[in-house]
Amino acid sequence: xxxxxxxxxxxxxxxxxxxxxxxxxxxxxxxxxxxxxxxxxxxxxxxxxxxxxxxxxxxxxxxxxxxxxxxxxxxxxxxxxxxxxxxxxxxxxxxxxxxxxxxxxxxxxxxxxxxxxxxxxxxxxxxxxxxxxxxxxxxxxxxxxxxxxxxxxxxxxxxxxxxxxxxxxxxxxxxxxxxxxxxxxxxxxxxxxxxxxxxxxxxxxxxxxxxxxxxxxxxxxxxxxxxxxxxxxxxxxxxxxxxxxxxxxxxxxxxxxxxxxxxxxxxxxxxxxxxxxxxxxxxxxxxxxxxxxxxxxxxxxxxxxxxxxxxxxxxxxxxxxxxxxxxxxxxxxxxxxxxxxxxx
Length: 344
Description:
The protein is an alpha+beta fold. The protein has helices spanning 25-43, 58-67, 86-95, 105-112, 114-123, 172-186, 234-238, 240-246, 258-274, 309-316, 321-334, 338-342; strands at residues 5-11, 47-53, 71-74, 131-134, 150-154, 168-169, 190-194, 199-207, 211-213, 217-220, 249-252, 280-287, 293-300.
C-alpha cells in the first residue's frame, strides 16, 4: 500500500520508547502493544507520529490539525480513566471527518456494555448466559431464583478486571459478597451470569462489510486444576510469570470438526454484524460437552500485541503481523461513516 501519515493514538502513560533495550520485563509488557504497532508501521515506511492523551480531547484536535494524518491508528482502551468513554473519542474523530482504524462508535458502545450486548444477542436468538444486573450505588436486591453457579464481574470493565477464582459463587451469601466487591473495586455495575462450563474458544474477525474469520483459537489452562481452570482470570490472561509456571497457553483448537469450525465462523460473523462492529474484533465463546455454544463476550479492537492471540490467529490465515496492520489501516481508510456519504 502507499505510504501514509499515521497518527498513533495511545494512552498518555503508554507512549512507547524508540527502543526497548534496557527496560525491565514489566516495563516492556506495559507498552508492548504500542511499541509493536509503532515500530511495525515505521518499518512499513509510514510516517508515524505518536500522541498520548489522558483526559484532554483538545490535544487530539490540535494534533490532527497540525499533522494532518491520512488516518488515526486507535489504540485507546479508555478516556479520562473510564473504559466506556473510548467510543466518544472515536465519535469525536468522526465529527472531525478524520479516518481511523478499528471499530466505529456504535459498535464500540454496544460491545463494551455486557448487558446491552446480551440483550441484542438474545433478540437475534444467539445463545448467551442468563444474567442479573446489580447497579452500582443502588441497594442490593437479591434475584428471586438464581441458577447457581454464577460468575460475578463488572458489567463494563474488560481485560478480566475483578475476575478471580472467587468470582464463581454457589450461594446467595457469596453472591452478595462478590457483588459488593465488584462495586467497591471497579466503581461499576456488577453482573452475575450463568456459569458455563466448557472449552474457552476465541475467534478473530476482520472486516467492515465483507468479513473474514481466523482459525478457532483455544485457551489451554495447562496444569491448573479443574476448579482453577473454570475461568480466565486476570492472572491467567495477563501474568506471564503465572502463565509460564502453569503452562497456560493459547493455540489453534485443531480437534474441532470441519462442520463445527464452519458453524463457529458463521456465528462469529453473525455476532459481529448484530452488534454493528467494524474494523476488527474477537468473539469469546464457551463450547459445552453437548455441543452447545454460548457467547461470553464480543471484543471490539482486541489486543494487537505481536505474538498474542489475535495476531497469531491471523498468522495462521497467512496474514503476518505487518500485513495485518496494513489490512487494519486499509479497512479504516475504506470505512464509510455517515459524513463520507454527505461528502460525495
